[in-house]
Amino acid sequence: MRTEFKVVTIKGNCFLYPVPVVKNHKYLLKVPTEDASLYIKAFKGQLITSPDSKRDDWLELGLHTDGRTSIYGIRQGSQSDKTINQMREEA
What we know:
The protein is α+β, with helices and mostly antiparallel strands. It is 23% helix and 30% strand. It has helices spanning 36-44, 79-90; strands at residues 5-10, 13-18, 27-30, 58-63, 70-74. The protein has a five-stranded mixed beta sheet with strand order 1-2-3-5-4, covered by helices on one side. The longest helix has 12 residues, at 79-90.
């Protein structure tokens, strides 16, 4: 499971992408801009899982305009979602 992520803004939307980038397994995670740092902290601490290891926590939203990069959003009610909500309340 990759735990290092960077933030990028594309057309006003905030995304995280895992680093190092794996050429044939690229993806973006669409997150609220105000929560990006919480997600990064949660990944570093291995408090939430990425689509690499547990896709049940993520919904595939579609493909980036490059036609190859999957875009995921967190599944409401998943364990990762609950963890982020708890972290948000504690912040």
